Amino acid sequence: MLIKEYRVINNCTRDEYQVAQLYAVAEASKAETSGGEGVEVIKNEPYDNGRGQYTYKIYHFSSKVPTLIRALAPSGALDLYEEAWNAYPHCKTVLTNGYMKENFKLVTESMHIDNSRGEVENALNISQDLLEKRQVVIIDIANDSIDKKDYREDQDPTLFHSEKTGRGPLKGDWIKTVTPVMTCYKLVTVEFKWFGLQTKIEAFIQDFHRQVFSWTDKWFGMTMEDIRALEDKTKLDLEESLSKPIEVTEVEASEPVVVRA
């Protein structure tokens, strides 16, 4: 079992980040969905008398895995199922696969803390046993290296300057000096021996938060009502995109599996 706690420092307030992450998730879902593949939103509804938002999604990405695996796996076996309970500032997401059942489970539990620079040692109040097994990783969206194929100049925090807020570019030891500031503490537990999965998780977290910062002028000023309206429209757009056929091309066996969650 892999237990990692990722600490992602962001140049925004905790309330702003709630809007920013939901905006980025909606935009990423649209970008990943077309021609029968992508994100299918089954449920997006309040729970616990409105104290949180529950979502259930299915990720259809069969053409993005090696041809050999597609040939061996039963129909639908490559779909991933995501349940999420968002009672911000605390959130929990569980990712499973119906074919592998108990042999694959990825759980992400997050706590978002205002005016924090990654210094809180037990933000998620986990047991002493888990603390001893946990590995802490600080994600620096400006200074951490990024794969050349994933680099986009318009999503580079060291170049981006927000016209609406005056924030950025993020330079040097920005984590210690920037304001406003908050930290996402993400405890990731993986029950599956997947070579390279840890690297993929870290790359995704970094990539996602580079987008969150670089899209500041797109989400800044939006309300939660605006976000819910965007999610409703996105759900309809995704359903339309999933219904359109696509010509599936062969994927080389050496090509890595990429999970967007």
UniProtKB/TrEMBL annotation:
Top-level taxonomic group: Eukaryota
Phosphatidylinositol transfer protein N-terminal domain boundaries: 1-235
GO cellular-component term (any): cytoplasm
Any one Gene Ontology molecular-function term assigned to this protein's record: phosphatidylinositol transfer activity
Protein name in UniProt: 1256_t:CDS:1
Species this chain originates from: Cetraspora pellucida
